[in-house]
Specification:
The structure is a single chain. The chain contains one helix and nine strands. It is mainly beta.
Length: 111
């Protein structure tokens, strides 16, 4: 019996054409290997759950992280293709909110 196409599909999706990260669509285990969108074989070094981000291409320190076509943060050091992208190598670029106002300047509905 031959393997189904789903068994050979990579465990990630790229959500936007300009994205430099992919999002895992299922969990991966240490030692799991699969081809990344850059054509390189990626071998996972840790367990990661669905929803985690991986660098789709090498990302330079200071470069914006793009997910769904939107910048979500900045790389705080170089990130290799296939490497987990998270708070250990990403600084969020979200606007801090304090003083009871939203990022758009209005009062929060629950106050």
């Amino acid at each position: 019996m031959s393997a189904s196409p789903a068994e050979h599909a990579p465990p990630y999706v790229q959500l936007g054409d300009r994205d430099n990260v992919v999002v895992l669509s299922r969990h991966v285990e240490p030692g799991d290997s699969f081809e990344g969108p850059d054509g390189m074989v990626w071998t996972m070094s840790a367990h990661l759950d669905a929803g985690n981000k991986l660098a789709a291409v090498p990302i330079a320190q200071g470069e914006r992280i793009i997910k769904v076509g939107v910048p979500i943060g900045t790389a705080i050091h170089p990130i290799e293709s296939g490497e987990h992208v998270h708070s250990h190598n990403l600084r969020s670029d979200h606007i801090p909110i304090d003083g009871g106002e939203t990022a758009m300047g209005g009062a929060r509905a629950f106050d």
